[in-house]
UniProtKB/TrEMBL annotation:
The keyword Transferase applies. This is Glucokinase. GO terms for biological process: glycolytic process. GO terms for cellular component: cytosol. Its EC number is 2.7.1.2.
Length: 313
């Protein structure tokens, strides 16, 4: 057995998988905020399963930068050490990955039915491919090559948000008053959905509630969701302009999983594309890249497994 884990700002997903298999066993989801560190999460998982033998190999997709044998989970303020994971649990091999690095590799194992095309079904080339994932935070990565597998994880979600009108400049001031980072992540994430609702209507609601109201056609919630998709389109175009993803652009993340039904409606698809084509000068270039939504519920787990398989070859 191999342990595969996706440790995110909101949820931590852990599962077991047999060697060379693609099927997850005993998948469990924990609320990350209920734990003080990753070691408690892994310990709880093993305790819940009452495992008699700990897996030799563990692969962790982590929501933050991974440098050498350490990682820092940005939205949890957790530090993760490869050495400590080995020491605490007796793993023989531990692989630490940025979660978007892992997510990008999911493309190697995804089925066609797990990808929803929004624009331009044909790709110019196989690579590079660009990935963006609004969730608790905002992740981006670029798959440069599949053979040898080369993926550039980034921290592009922390680039400063670029407002284009008075409404958005005032939103930045709103964030500043909250002493928040003035980044794209705070304009395009789960937390951002709550912030936009508060900014527009002076009422604090969790993102899940805003999404629920939008499904019920509540006009205030729909305004927030449309703003989210417009900004998503703009951020995707930025990603496209600095990566030139001739292999396509892939959208996923916890927020997209919650909102994917809206992207199947023409009205919301048009809002996203309007944001994507905001740069009139480069509209022709942007039109060359396909846009796709990953429908698989756990792409980071799948991608972590793909990277493990790739390293074992």
């Amino acid at each position: 057995m191999i342990l595969i884990a996706d440790i995110g700002g909101t949820n931590s997903r852990l599962a077991l998988v047999r060697k060379k298999s693609k099927n997850f066993i005993n998948l469990k989801i924990y609320k990350s905020k209920n734990f003080r560190n990753i070691y408690e999460v892994v310990g709880s998982y093993f305790s819940d399963l009452d495992l008699k033998k700990i897996p030799n190999v563990a692969v962790f997709a982590l929501a933050g930068p991974v440098i050498k044998d350490r990682a820092y989970l940005t939205n949890l303020n957790w530090e993760v050490s490869k050495y400590k994971l080995k020491k605490f649990f007796g793993f023989k091999e531990v692989i630490l990955l940025n979660d978007l690095q892992a997510l990008s590799a999911s493309i190697l194992l995804l089925k066609k039915s797990e990808i929803l095309n929004i624009k331009g079904k044909k790709t110019l080339k196989k690579e590079p491919k660009a990935f963006i994932a609004p969730g608790t935070g905002l992740g981006e990565a670029i798959l440069v090559k599949e053979k040898p597998l080369t993926i550039l994880p980034t921290e592009g979600g922390h680039i400063f948000f670029s407002p284009l009108n008075e409404e958005e400049f005032k939103y930045l001031k709103f964030l500043e008053n909250k002493e928040e980072e003035l980044s794209w992540e705070k304009a395009l994430s789960g937390k951002a959905i709550s912030y936009w609702y508060e900014y527009y209507f002076n009422e604090v609601l969790p993102p899940e509630k805003v999404t629920e109201l939008a499904r019920k056609k509540d006009p205030k919630a729909l305004k927030v969701i449309k703003k989210f998709f417009e900004l998503l389109g703009r951020k995707i175009s930025q990603l496209a302009l600095y990566s030139l993803p001739e292999g396509g652009i892939y959208i996923t993340g916890g927020v997209i999983q919650a909102l994917k039904e809206f992207l199947e409606e023409q009205e919301f698809k048009e809002v996203l594309l309007r944001g994507y084509f905001k740069n009139e000068k480069l509209k022709g270039l942007l039109d060359k890249f396909s846009l796709n939504v990953i429908l698989h519920p756990n792409p980071s787990l799948l991608g972590a497994l793909a990277i493990l398989h790739n390293q074992q070859k």
